[in-house]
Amino acid sequence: HCLSSPPSCFLQSLYPLPYLYLFSLPPSPSFCFSPSDEENACESGAVRLVGGETFNEGRLEVCFLGHWGTVCDDEFDNVDAAVVCGQLGLQSEGAIALPLALYGGGVGVIFLDDVDCLGNETRLEDCFYPGEIGESNCLHVEDASILCPSNETKVCDNGDVRLVGGSGNYSGRVEVCFNNAWGTVCDDDWDTGDAEVVCKQLGFDPMGSLALRNAFFGQGTGAIFLDDANCSPQNHSTLIECFASIDASVGDHDCQHREDASVVCSSDCEDCNCTNGDLRLRGGATELEGRVEVCINGVWGTICRNFWDGPDAAVVCKQLGLAQTDAAAVTDGRFGAGTGVILWNNFLCRGTEEALLECYHERPQNGTCSHLQDVGVRCSRFVCNNGDIRLADGPYDSDGRLEICFDQRYGAICDNGFGSTEAAIACRQLGYNDGQGAIALPNGFFGFGPPITTSRVSCTARSQHSQNASTTPTVSVSPPKLCPSCANQATPVAPMEISDWLAVLIHTKGEWRCVSTATGAASVRSVGPISTPSQCAP
């Protein structure tokens, strides 16, 4: 039961082994077998397909000396596969050779390597193969497999595509049909153009299609039919049109199912858990920071760090309803690596955009980014809206130094030109008695506050909101000099001017105060509390 009858066979004859004993040491290969059960022995030269889901697919095995062994995929092509299918009594035209132990690696001897059939042979053993039976430089991870055409009820037509494993009919692992069977597509060079053609073939708008790699929607089974797609949506309408010779391309790959290609097509899906352009932060210690993730067609993805900076982070914070002041771009991966697709890189925001996708951005090229380069942001809580006003440091809600918000910071208002009309508008904006009885108090009546951000406020009586007033921004750091006191009483008490002094009733305090109206004079003269305005007279 030996081939080449080496000394090892003589030793085995003395010490029979109950299992296959293999010596595969070219150039003098030799292997010996334990005696076969004649009932279960196979005929030398017979072939079979093992490990497939149907009778017409599987790992190719060939019989020699009553034992089954495998065939290496070196040089094994569709012509060789056609001879095997014909030997099995199946249709040979359209047979597909599949490499890399697609249906699992075999055991025992690898009988044949570098098989080269002409196509007119009736049995695999009639084909040319260099060397001797059992001479091979392969491992079982290189076992050849075959898919023969099936005469069963038609499942699909050659070139059909479908999406499997996604959250809807618009997303999933790409599978393509050949010989009435579905197989996958390898993600080598898989890019947006390829995804757009697949989505176009399925009837979706190709614009906005996403190409996903690394078995994003799970690994397929069975054949890997296509590899190295090179599609252009302008020139191709179906996936198989992307290959110069589809007959030569089917089954020609160097991939595993962990490299299965996937797509997400543009769709107004009802079952999407997010809307195109939505943002979220993940991996941060608070809701104010984290890894930036973007939703496209119901799928969350990340952003590569190339050119990620402050204006980009500011737009993210703005879109999330957080303060963009002091927004920080994070590129050191501190918020952890994301999963799934890396959607974009090279964002170039000005900072004025309302949403991140309004900024210029690009799709990353294959292999240029990894999830270790996912970007993040740090935002702050939203303080105020531009034009918001407040009263600060007063004893009651209706009194205080007037401050106005710009760029999410409150600043003081200079009292140049600020009078009762402006005070009334401010009080009206704050909701006090339609502004009636408002009093402008100059010269830091309620103390010094933040830097002055606005000067020369000028309102008309028709103004409804302080934002409608004419203002001049200033960078002065001088202390504020004026704030209104808003009276919410039904019948406000009007101020009484006595000489260069103004007797003012601070309603919420229930007392009169004396305020100078003379330029350069002290802001307040305390004489009391006083009971009547006349006590303000010098």
TrEMBL record:
Disulfide bonds: 117-127, 349-359
Residues annotated as domain SRCR: 47-149, 161-266, 279-380, 389-460
Domain of life: Eukaryota
A Gene Ontology cellular-component term: extracellular space
Listed Pfam families: SRCR (PF00530)
Domain Rhodanese: 395-454
Extent of the signal sequence: none
Any one Gene Ontology molecular-function term assigned to this protein's record: protein-lysine 6-oxidase activity
GO biological process: collagen fibril organization
Key words, A-Z: Disulfide bond, Glycoprotein, Receptor, Repeat, Signal
Name of the protein: Neurotrypsin
Lineage, broadest ranks: Eukaryota, Metazoa, Porifera, Demospongiae, Heteroscleromorpha
